Amino acid sequence: MLYSVFMLALRSIRRNLLRSFLTILGIVIGVSAVITMVTLGNGATASIKAQISGLGTNLLMVRPGQRSGPGGGGGGGGGGVPQFNEADAEAIAAQIGGVAAVAPEGRASATVVANGRNWATSIIGSSNAWFDTGNWKLASGRIFSDEEQQAGSAVCLIGETVRREIFDGTVGQTGLGAQLRVRKFSCIVIGILAGKGQSGMGDQDDTVVVPLRTLQRRVTGNLKVATLLVSMRDGSDATRLKASLTQLLRERRKLATGDDDNFNIFDTQQLAETLSSTTQVLTTLLGAVAAVSLLVGGIGIMNIMLVSVTERTREIGLRLAIGALEHEVLLQFLIEAVVLSALGGVIGILIATAASWGLSSLMGVPYAFDPFINLLSLAFSAGIGVLFGYFPAKRAARMDPIEALRHE
Amino acid sequence: MTEPLIRLQGVTKRYGSGQAELLALKGIDLDIQAGEFVAIMGPSGSGKSTAMNILGCLDTPSQGQYLFEGAHVESLSRDQRARLRRRYLGFVFQGFNLLARTSAQENVELPLLYRGDTANVRRTAAAKALQAVGLAGWEHHTPAELSGGQQQRVAIARAIVTEPAVVLADEPTGNLDTQRSHEIMGLLMALNRDHGITVLMVTHEPDMAAYARRMVHFIDGRIAKDAANPNPTTTAPDVPIAEGAV
Ligand SMILES: Nc1ncnc2c1ncn2[C@@H]1O[C@H](COP(=O)(O)OP(=O)(O)O)[C@@H](O)[C@H]1O
Ligand SMILES: [Mg+2]
Q: Residue B55: which CATH number?
């Protein structure tokens, strides 16, 4: 029974292909809009999360100067604010509980030359702790030895981007053991960092890492440390750790009770949460707007189903006359509406998949297929068919066959 | 005399109420035996269609009784009457009422879909019915590709595909020219004669009524005359009727 009614509905849809398509256009647009919005939003959220976890989880970045935005501190620090030094890093590591690693970081820009090629990159001077705080892995080679750190030796590790730009195409392609000229000195490449990929904070792989002392002596010529990277142990209390860190630094920087902090602590985890909750709110908002269009699509279905019922009055009269039962006619029109709107849902999903795939690669966010939102949209559009198809279907089923047959 | 297939007793039909009240049927008594071919005639507005709607179980009398094979139709529910129609009755309308953009075969299959027949059963039965009305080979044509006479023949095929006891036709030739009308009448006559289907037909035209073996005249909601046709037309224009079809 259900099967034959289903067949009847399919035949009706096929008979009015153009109108069927126009009927579901609203649903198609609604569904594809909802899914595209949510998928892109999820992709953006995921990419922000990935970028931030790329910086290192549970990472505090301490910089001189008043609070500034991510990546904005630079290291300039502003007029007259005292910089950090290596001793600050040692003090933090020694005196504050819950700290996994502390790395003092100094930066400089330089063009590096080797293999007959040159490349402008940023030179980072730090300790071995830097590899821990930044979640860096080695693709090959080794990190600094204690002697190299103490002595400020001319050794360096290079990021994936630098390796690619300078050493791609060479024997072994790694550049391990090669001499890399940085400004006025040359360092021996002892290690290659595993790539992290493009990030919102710029290309993290575009870097050359040398011991802090090497940077200070041979590149910048001063003992300043622009940033202290402090990574927390898993499960340590970020708020308490930040409080004791603040207190320690205030003491070391001899700030009086009433003075403002002349440094700022930047928490990547907090940033991650803030940013991803922002994109989530945006996703929800866009999704809601798109859902409204889905609702409008549903009203479109009802409208056209009503027109269709009126237009097909004689057909309904005939069906009733040849013995269709009330609920069979009701079911037929209901199934027609549901099949139509579900079809709209399926087409919408296909369009959305293509669109969000294309748009996400265009926007540089990962394509995050979300089965839940796809299923939900499909169920929702079928539900819209039931909801908005019921009234016209009821109207069809209740018709008087004689009146209906007389209808012009 | 055997129990009649159809028995109307004191049937009246009232439309509207108060000032607008109109008595379309004013007490009809009518017995029809299985296998009869009855033409219902009479002036416009005399209640022919009203009576046909009641006979076709599409409508119920305001008063009186309608017995179909002894069952009281007037006390059946809407769905019960629908079941009765799908089982025993076939309809042919003046306006054909075929589904547009739908092949002749699918049109003929329609009543079988409601019976839940399988695709195979439907196809075979539809082919047989189309053959019976002389439209073998026209299965895949849509109404727009068929002439009026052919469309009405598809409609007749649709009416007989369920092998009904009674075919009801309200002015089946009203939209056709004389030649096509005779073809349709020949078809109805053959269905009645060769397959024992009871045919009830409303017509204005004496030429068409002449095919019937009994004529019932309506005037002003009453049966004015009810008599056998002593000399029914038997020579219709050549319409192919397959032997053993239906
Ligand atoms: N649904 C209806 N509502 C009101 N009056 C109707 C309705 N159907 C038929 N009538 C009236 O009943 C009378 C008989 O109509 P009908 O049976 O259609 O006549 P016929 O078919 O003989 O021309 C006419 O006066 C017609 O106007
Ligand atoms: Mg009439």
A: 3.40.50.300
